[in-house]
Amino acid sequence: MADAKPFKPALIIVDFQEDFCPPNGSLAVPNGRSVAPVVNHLLTLPFSLKLAPRDWHPPNHTSFAANHGDSPPFTSSTTVIHPSDPSRSYTTTLWPVHCVQGTPGAQLVPELDVARVHAVIDKGMDPRVEMYSAFYDPFHVSDSGIAERLRAEGVTDVFVVGLATDFCVKATAEHALEEGFRSYIVEEGTKPVLLDQWPECRKNILAKGIKMISAEGDEITRVKSLS
Ligand SMILES: [Zn+2]
């Protein structure tokens, strides 16, 4: 059946990097590496644009607990202040040192079929702000250019996979929606890092209007049918 609505899908594979994967990742997502077969299968489908953003932090990044004295990772936080407007701020979780530019932990996992990716895009390079989303940080002082890239390609629908569901995948899917794209997370292609909080987080994602879909679902069948 022909569908009147335009459909030009993009695939965004978020932060599929060594530091987010067992066995050696400093911020390993449980079973993170196991999503590789699903991600690689999606990469064979005729998405108009296939992007792989990666966390690419300088050593002095504000999200590292080690840069905040004795603050323990995961359970402590820091206040990020807007670089040019001190009246604006947000609180963000502190993490173990991860994905430092050029280190082995920052490399995309070798399982990823990167030859099928159109572009690898670095994010999180401004040491002053946290940047979970592959689009931009909460203050929009650091912008990866992904939104412009999607629009230039005429993309209508954005499918997000990668690590971790509850942080960078979620933030990327939220910004995709806010930028006017239909936004989906393919559940078999992603894993959350904070398992105890995941059921609540999943509800919040759905409440925003992001669809959590299966790699076997109708939306993916529709992508396949484009070929
Ligand atoms: Zn990071």
From TrEMBL:
Pathway(s) the chain acts in: Cofactor biosynthesis; nicotinate biosynthesis; nicotinate from nicotinamide: step 1/1
InterPro entries, per database record: Isochorismatase-like_dom (IPR000868), Isochorismatase-like_sf (IPR036380), Isochorismatase_Nicotinamidase (IPR052347)
Pfam families attached to this UniProt entry: Isochorismatase
Keywords associated with the record: Hydrolase, Metal-binding, Pyridine nucleotide biosynthesis
GO biological process annotation, one example: pyridine nucleotide biosynthetic process
Domain of life from the UniProt record: Eukaryota
The protein's enzyme class: hydrolase
MF (Gene Ontology): metal ion binding; nicotinamidase activity
Segments crossing the lipid bilayer: none
Keyword RNA-binding set for record: no
EC number: 3.5.1.19
CDD domains per UniProt: nicotinamidase
Domain (Isochorismatase-like): residue spans on this chain: 78-191
Alphabetized PANTHER family for the sequence: LD05707P, PYRAZINAMIDASE/NICOTINAMIDASE
Family assignment from sequence similarity: Belongs to the isochorismatase family.
Protein name (database record): nicotinamidase
Organism annotation: Tolypocladium ophioglossoides (strain CBS 100239)
